[in-house]
Amino acid sequence: MGDKDSRHSTLARGEDQRVSVSWAPAARYVSAPFPKGTQVGEVEVTLDSRPLAAIPIVTQAAVDRGGIFKRLKDRIERAL
What we know:
Helices cover 15% and strands 34% of the residues. By secondary structure, the protein is of the alpha+beta class. Strands 1-4-3-2 form a four-stranded antiparallel β-sheet, with no helix packed on it.
């Protein structure tokens, strides 16, 4: 996973202490298969509780469906 575009930002000295970053997933679980570029969440950047950016997080490669044992293992893990 990664951001859709490379983003950079410059902060004044001391502002780094006032910046917060939070992750907002698109869903609790993501089920394969899905193509490259599928949005799986968003990173929100705030400065003093004011939104600076909302960065979409996308898959960097296509993800194939798992085999029968992988799917069975995943289903058991989710149930616990």
